[in-house]
Amino acid sequence: MAKVRVSTLAKEFGMTSKELMGHLADMKIPAKSASSTLEDAYVAMVRKQLASVIEARAQEVEAAKQAEEQAAAAEEAARAAEAERERIAAEKAREEERRQFAAMPRPSASASPPRRPARRSAASLPQPRLPRRLPAPRPRPRR
């Protein structure tokens, strides 16, 4: 295996480079920055020493995922319930409108249909206005 950067190892463990640098300092492993490389022997020691920390972090991440999924499911259920309430309210409004329409008096068959207004002649229609002509642009002064 080749050398591994501290930042790569931190990503693998699911922690920040700063946190891993603190653990490396506690284990007396020489690393000055996140871009420092670690030998294979050091990487094996780190993995062995931090196995419990990695496991605890994995459990935290899993618990956070489950909490997020539960929150998303609860939010979706609330949205569905709200949509159902809106649908029922709209259905009731439509039914009430139908009842009111059914209760309206019907016009008798002997009544004449409403009259259409007389058509205007072409001469009486308003004429469109022509656009006003714009003045010619002024020349720009030379510098």
> How many helix segments?
4
Q: Assign the structural class, choosing from mainly alpha, mainly beta, alpha/beta, alpha+beta, or little secondary structure.
A: mainly alpha
- Give the overall average pLDDT: 85
Radius of gyration: 40 Å
**SSE string, helices as H and strands as E:** EHHEHH
What does this structure look like?
The chain is mostly helical. Helices cover 57% and strands 3% of the residues. The protein has 4 helices and 2 strands, in the order βααβαα. A two-stranded antiparallel ribbon has the order 1-2. Helix 1 (6-13) crosses helix 2. The chain is elongated and about 105 Å long. 6% of the residues are buried.
Q: How are the SSEs placed, and which strands pair?
A:
Blueprint: E1 4-5, H1 6-13, H2 17-26, E2 37-38, H3 40-49, H4 51-103
Antiparallel strand pairs: 1-2
Helix pairs in contact: 1-2
Short description:
With 143 residues, the chain is mainly α. It has helices at residues 6-13, 17-26, 40-49, 51-103, and strands at 4-5, 37-38.
Give a quick set of tags describing it.
2 strands; mainly alpha; 3% strand; two-stranded antiparallel sheet; 143 residues; 57% helix
